[in-house]
Amino acid sequence: MNDTDDELWGRFATEVARSVPAYGRFLADRGIDASSLDPSALPSLPAMDKPGYISAYPLPERCRDGDPHTIQMISTSSGSSGVPTVWPRRVDDGERAAAPFRRVFTDAFGADRKHTLAVVCFPLGSWVGGLYTLDCLQHLARTGLKLTLAAPGNNIAAILQTVRALAPLADQTVLLGYPPFLKDVIDAGRTDGVPWERYGMHLVFAGEVFSETWRDEVCRRAGITSPETATAGLYGTADAGVLAHETPASIRLRRSVASTPGAAEAVFGSRRLPSLMRYDSGIRRFDTADGELFLTTDGVVPLVRYTLGDTGGAAAYSALLRRCAEAGVPATAPEPDMSERYVWLFGRPLFALSMYGANIYPETIAAGLERDDAYADLTGKFVMEIVEGEQPRLRVIAEVLPGRPVSDVRTDTTSLSLLTALREQNGEYANYVPEHLQPPLFELRPHADTAYFPTGVKHRYTRV
User: Fold this and answer.
1) Which of 410, 445, 368, 380 is nearest to 187 (CA)?
2) Cα–Cα distance measured from residue 46 to residue 34, given in angstroms and rounded to the nearest whole number
3) Separation of alpha carbons 125 and 327, rounded Å
4) Fewer CB within 10 Å of terminal CB in the chain, N or C?
5) What is the rounded average pLDDT for all residues in the chain?
C-alpha cells in the first residue's frame, strides 16, 4: 500500500469503529477507545475472525448503526471449517463485484468481441458461488459483453446437455466452477464423446490452490492450447465475494517460478507454490502478519483486518518482478501498470495434517500424484489421512476416472512419487518423520466412491 491508500483505509477503520456497534465493542473489549482511534493505527489494530467477531456479536450490531434493514440478501459459506455461516449482502453486490469477472472475460478471453457461452457450474442456492457468479455475469451481459448465460449448477449431466446444445452456436465456451469439479466435467465429457476441442474452451476456477502441472493436464483434456489466456483462477469467499483474479501476466509469472528450481521459496517465502492474483487496492486492503492474510473492505458488514484463514502475502507487480530477477526466474512480459497489486495465497492451514510435528499440505500430495504415470487414469481428487497405530503412517486415497476399473490402474511407482514430492517440498516431513515411516500408503477407490468421493458436495482433501 502507498501512503494515500494507507490514509484511505485508516480513515475507513475509524469510521467503522464509530458507526458499527459491534466493532466499537470489539475494540473496547481489547482496551482500545474507538472514539479516539487514530487512522495511522490501522496496521496495529487487533484482527477480526469468525469466533472472536462474527460469532461473538449479533448480526444487527455488525451492521452500520446497528440497522439490519440494510441486509437485502444472504449467502452462506460452504462450511469447510465445520459450520456454515450466514453472510449478508446487498442486491447490487453483483454490479459492484463484476469488475474481476469483466477483466477476465475481456482482457483474457475477449468476450467483448466474441460471442461467449458462459456456463455456471458452481452449486446453486444460498451458497455464494453459483448465484453470486450468475449475478455478476448477468451484469456483464447487460452492459455490453457478448454473453449467453446458463446455470445448470453442479449437475454434470445438465452441464453436458447445455454444452452440446449451445456451444456449437458460440465462438467460445467458458465453464466456471470449483477446480476438481470442472475436471470431473471435462473427464465425463470426454468419456461421453463431447468434442471439447471444437468449442473454444475457457475455464474459470475458484475455491482452491492448484499446480501448473494440474492446469496443463486439465487444459490438455479440454483441448486448450493457451493456458495463460484461456484459464483464470478467482480468489473468492462467502465473507467478502470475489477478492482477486488471475491475469495472463500473473499466470506467466507463476509458471516461470514453478519451472525454476528453488524460486518459489525465494519469491514467495515457501517451497509451496501459491496462487497469484491481482486485486483492486481501492476497494480492499490486504496485510499480513506471520504469513497470515488479513482483509479490510466495506460491505453490509464492514471488515477491518479480518482473517480469512488463508496464508500468503501481497506486493506490487514491480516488486514481484524484482524478486523473480533476484531468484533467477526467466523474465516474463510485464503487466502494463507495474504498480498493480497482487496477492498470493497458499490456502488454509486448516486443511493440513500433522505427523510427528510435520505439517502435510494437499498441494504437496497433488504434486506427487501429478508426476506419476498413474495420474492419467485419475480424476485428480484424493484424500489424505493419518493411519493411527503403534506407528502412524500417511495414507493417500485417490479416485480413478469414470468407467475405469481400479484393477487396470498401475500404481507401482506412486508411493515413491509421493515420497519424492514430500521430501523435496516439505523439509519438516523429510526431517521430522522417521525415515522408515516416510513412504506413504497408497490406495485407489472407484469414481464417486461414497466413502471418500461423494458427488454433489465440496470435496475435502483431508480426513482426521
Assistant:
1) 380
2) 12
3) 45
4) C
5) 90
Residue 370 belongs to what H/E stretch? Answer: helix 362-370
Query: Closest by alpha carbon to 303, among 90, 130, 45, 83?
Result: 45
Assess whether the region 93-279+317-340 and the region 353-463 belong to the same CATH fold: no
* CATH architecture, domain defined by 93-279+317-340: 3-Layer(aba) Sandwich (3.40)
Residue 10, C-alpha cell as written in the block: 485508516
Identity at 94, one-letter amino acid code:
G
> Which of 203, 183, 188 shows the shortest CA–CA distance to 157?
188
Chain centroid, CA 221 distance in Å? 21
Instruction: Classify residue 58 as exposed, middle or buried by CB count within 10 Å of its CB (0-12, 13-18, 19+).
Output: exposed
- Helix (H) or strand (E) holding 196, with range, is none
207 vs 462, residue with greater confidence: 462
Q: With beta carbons less than 8 A apart as the criterion, state whether 105 and 231 touch.
A: no
Residue with cell 468476450: 111
pLDDT tens readout for residues 25-54: 999 999 999 888 888 889 999 999 989 999
The answer to whether the beta carbons of residues 236 and 177 sit under 8 Å apart is no
Domain ranges of the chain: 3-73, 93-279+317-340, 353-463
Among 71-75, 167-171, 313-317, where is mean pLDDT lowest?
A: 71-75
Of residues 266, 134, 254, the one with CA closest to residue 204: 134
What's 459's DSSP letter? -
pLDDT in tens, 375-409: 999 999 999 999 987 788 999 999 999 999 999 99
Q: For residue 3, is pLDDT > 60?
A: no
Q: What is the DSSP string of 58-127?
A: -GGGGSGGG-GGG--EEEE---TTSS--EEEE-TTHHHHTHHHHHHIIIIIT-TTTS-EEEEE-SPPSSB
310 pLDDT band, cuts 50/70/90, is confident
Q: Which residues contact 184 (CB under 8 A, 6 or more apart)?
A: 156, 379, 381
Question: Cell 456449437 identifies what position?
Answer: 168
Containing H/E element for 358? strand 358-360
pLDDT of residue 81: 47
Residue 287, pLDDT above cutoff 90: yes
CATH topology of domain 353-463: GMP Synthetase; Chain A, domain 3 (3.30.300)
Which pLDDT belongs to residue 236? 85
pTM of the predicted model as reported, rounded to 2 decimal places: 0.83
